[in-house]
Amino acid sequence: MAEVTPNADENPWKKLNVAIQDADTLRQEAVEAHTEHLITEIETLEGPLATTLRAVYDGEGVDYFMEKLDARIKGHDHEIERMCNYHYQGFIDSIRELQQVSGDATKLKGEIQGLNRELKFSCDPLLSKGDELVKYRKIQKNVTLAIESLSLCLPVLEMYGKLQEQMKCKRYYPALKTLEQLEHTYLPRVLNHWFSQTMAEAIPRLRERIKDASMVELKDFLESIRKHSAKIGEVAMRHAAEQNNMDPSIAKKRVKTRRAPPPPNPFTGEVEDVAPSPPTNNSDKEEELSAQDLIDFSPVYRCLHIYSLLGDKEKFESYYRSQRWKQAWLSLQPPPNMHESLDLFKKYFHDIIGFFVVEDHILHTTQGLVTRSHMDELWEKTVEKLSATLRITWVRDY
After folding, report:
1. pTM for this prediction
2. What pLDDT, in 10s, does the model give residues 90-100?
């Protein structure tokens, strides 16, 4: 039996139909996969959805996408409903427990408020006493600080009062020492107090006052030795004649024992008083007089120490020497009509000798104020002037 041969014209169309069906199937699967991808991206994406939505509307399966999206939403709603039904009973139990806890919390709150009122009532006296204690603690602290401040300030004020008292009594060298202690020892302890600045500003002025006051005393001293120079020279000549037997009337007298003057106090510049032997009569008393008996040298010592302490020793020495040279020049000027009276001659020589006696005393009781070279220079000039004066007087007489 012969086989039936398929129709050659039918096979190509069948294959084409199958290919078309396969292509539709693939296209449908691709659309489904793309739609599923977009829905998944919408569910998981946390950022903006603009790119995803553009991809949806740019494609051809918008209606299909909407159907799938609605189906996915319904699926999620069903899942949510199922989960709610599953946990509903637990939720109800939790609400009941919360209501019970709320009642217990209200009761506990009432008890706590009651305890708080009782505690507050019990602690009110304690709080009041605590406030008083804090108040008195502050007062005690302030009193302690005041005592500490006074313990620092009182010595400063006492030193300042001592300084003013010394200035009032004209004890300038001790006042200067007190001023140094006040500036370097006491004032640094009270720098936080306003009066320390006032005192610190007053210290330079006080130093100048001390310098000026000591200079006034020095000027008085120079004036005094100028007045007593002739008397000092007269006593010195009498002692020299007595010691060298130059005058028979004096040589017969008993030689008196005279003590050298004590040196000045290096801290105060004052010469300590030494009780002299009581003279037997007025003549003996006059013979016992010396430069330190007639003149108080303490002003020059004080002024020297004060200027040395303040760093102006050279200035003081220069001033003293210039003033003494002026006095020496005045002593060398002969009085008018000296050639007519022997007493005027004596007074002239006594004045010159008294000047050198004072300078010799200063030379031996101070260090550097009057030097040997300075004395020699004065003596040479004095001899020249004295020789010239005597020649003029001799020519005038003869």
Report:
1. 0.54
2. 777 788 888 88
